[in-house]
Amino acid sequence: MTSVHDEPATPAGDGGLVRVRLDLGYDGTEFSGWARQPARRTVCGVLEDALSQVFRRPLTLTVAGRTDAGVHASGQVAHVDLPVESDVDGLAKRLSRILPADVRVFRATRVPDEFDARFSALRRHYAYRVADAPFGADPLRRLDTISWPRPLSLAAMSEASRLLLGEHDFVAFCKRREGATTIRELQRLEWSRGDDDVLTAAVSADAFCHSMVRSLVGALLAVGEGREPVDWPASLLRSTERSSSVTVAPPHGLTLVRVDYPADQDLAARAAITRNVRVSSAS
């Protein structure tokens, strides 16, 4: 079932509503994830409270990807339906006066009513940063880079990553959610090493199930330090349940960096496709 705010903007009195896209970023260190939770500080809670303060009415956000506690974002996208007379161009500046320093709305843009931050998305892009230098992570990057105590093989991790690409049931790497599929198309999983001895994984998919990126990274780190063979992560794709042998990598190394959307005329069609729960081609 979809909620009201997942649907196109609907009239509200004489003025009506306009759908607004918010491009935003946050340092996830002090947040208990995106989703609003009672008695917890969350990104959604802080943003919805700020928007409701500006417009003097309760407002609800729909987000492209609900990040976990401690996970960061530099390219998160959300949408909200606002009164049609709203000053959309000035919204980011108004919010900057209210929001805490660890979350910022970079841009607010009026979009077609068919735009849905979650269901219209074509793919999400994440980055995961790991430092395997003997001294650990640079102190200035300690909040978005994990320190790994043993040397990692870029070649082994890259080969293991290549074997995971494509559409599979990633249940071995996911925490199940009621009614949600674990079939995903992993479109990119590439590692690179910088001059600072930081390995960065660039990870892209049409969508991710809960804890999928961090579980994939955890499995690949086991390969990189030589505890598991190169083909081990891909062998887990034959599993029918979450694998207890996969250690989930720490959240603070993960950042949502971008979300891709189709052209305006294709928004509604993309949302319709995404809402259809995918089943395995083997079923």
From TrEMBL:
Keyword terms: Isomerase, tRNA processing
Gene responsible for this protein: truA
Keyword tRNA processing recorded: yes
Chemical reaction(s) catalysed: uridine(38/39/40) in tRNA = pseudouridine(38/39/40) in tRNA
HAMAP family: TruA
Active site: 68
Quaternary structure and interacting proteins, as annotated: Homodimer.
Pfam families linked: PseudoU_synth_1
General function of this protein: Formation of pseudouridine at positions 38, 39 and 40 in the anticodon stem and loop of transfer RNAs.
Stretches assigned to the Pseudouridine synthase I TruA alpha/beta domain: 26-119, 160-262
Protein known as: tRNA pseudouridine synthase A
The organism of origin for this protein: Kutzneria kofuensis
InterPro entries: PsdUridine_synth_cat_dom_sf, PsdUridine_synth_TruA, PsdUridine_synth_TruA_a/b_dom, PsdUridine_synth_TruA_C, TruA/RsuA/RluB/E/F_N
Residues that, per the record, bind substrate: 126
Alphabetized PANTHER family for the sequence: PSEUDOURIDYLATE SYNTHASE, TRNA PSEUDOURIDINE SYNTHASE-LIKE 1
TM region(s), chain numbering: none
Biological process per Gene Ontology, one example term: tRNA pseudouridine synthesis
